[in-house]
Amino acid sequence: MELNETRKQIDAIDEQMTDLFCRRMELALKIAEAKKEQHLPVLNHEREREILQMISAQAGEPLDKYARLLFNTLFDVSRSYQNNYLAKPGPLADSIRKAVKETPEIFPGKAVVACQGVSGSYSAAACEKLFTLPSPMFFNTFESVFNAVDKGLCAYGILPIENSSYGSVSAVYDLMRNYNFHIVRSIRLRVSHNLLARPGTSLSDIKEIYSHEQAIGQCGEFLKTLPGVKITLCDNTAEAAKLVAGSDRTDAAAIASRECVDLYGLDVLKSNIQITDNNYTRFICISKKLEIYPGANRISLMLSLEHKPSSLYHMIARFSSMGLNLTKLESRPIPGSDFEFMFYFDIDAPIYSEEVIGLLSELEEGPETFVFLGSYSEAI
Prior knowledge:
Blueprint: H1 2-37, H2 45-59, H3 64-86, H4 91-102, E1 110-116, H5 122-130, E2 133-139, H6 142-150, E3 156-163, E4 167-168, H7 170-176, E5 182-190, E6 194-197, E7 208-211, H8 213-218, H9 220-223, E8 230-233, H10 237-246, E9 252-256, H11 259-264, E10 267-270, E11 280-287, E12 298-304, H12 311-321, E13 325-333, E14 341-348, H13 354-365, E15 370-376, E16 378-379
Parallel strand pairs: 1-2, 1-3, 5-16, 7-8, 7-9
Antiparallel strand pairs: 3-4, 3-11, 5-11, 6-9, 6-10, 12-14, 12-15, 13-14
Helix pairs in contact: 1-3, 2-3, 3-12, 4-13
């Protein structure tokens, strides 16, 4: 009976708090309207700091830190409500609505697609899975793929972005801020690495192994069983296989896909040498034109934030207040800046929601550098 009675008291307090919350949010909109007329920003650090100090003193120990947490959350919700109310659809909102309307219902089966590496690369495999009859064009570097799409040489480009075992492909993230592109689709590709060598070579003969940095990392445990073997990095796993095949060495091997066996006349010395069988690499398909195909349920953004306490927290809180699930957060330093970072976000969110479009418009108008990378679905 004592537990039930206490719960009833809490229910009564929650009811009062809900009424007070709604009233507070009504007043927050009046504040937003006044700030709009006076051309003032929604966020007022000094005002929030004063309130937190007052609340902390009023609550006292040991509840002061919990009270501060409660009111910090309340501030985030209030700011989000104000920003959403004040947000005006801008050029980005118009571009998104136009793309949704004009993009074909079916993803193209034929296209000229830029891929890094050569035939037999994992990028080529991802390309084959995304497109029915692609015409791949191979380039030596990731930057060349971005450039081919940017210059219109290829309609689409395929780029690896992260691996389940070895993490993000940093080189791709570093290049993102330099090019104008949009993500139109992504795919998760199961990656199985193999140690390949010229016919007649045995595992005990190997003195040097060629491959890409990501593949080397994904096969780290296996490589520990080969002490003294030199590891040489290549731009691509398939290029490593082609290099070994074109040499006359019987003491060299490459870590590459099984497709390279027939393509370059190599033998498999050891199969499935990656750390885990559940080894997946995520690839993005990029286009210069904004295309949003039916079923798009993921949004990718880039943002630069001020180097101030809680700036990232406040940004994440804006997504959280709308119930949006943040599935990826990657930070990369901005060259030439004083500890400033560009943040890459993946968010599970429907682009068809006016509330989501309002948030994007709000971010577009904000003081931070903001880039909408695209809305798309992921193939498996």
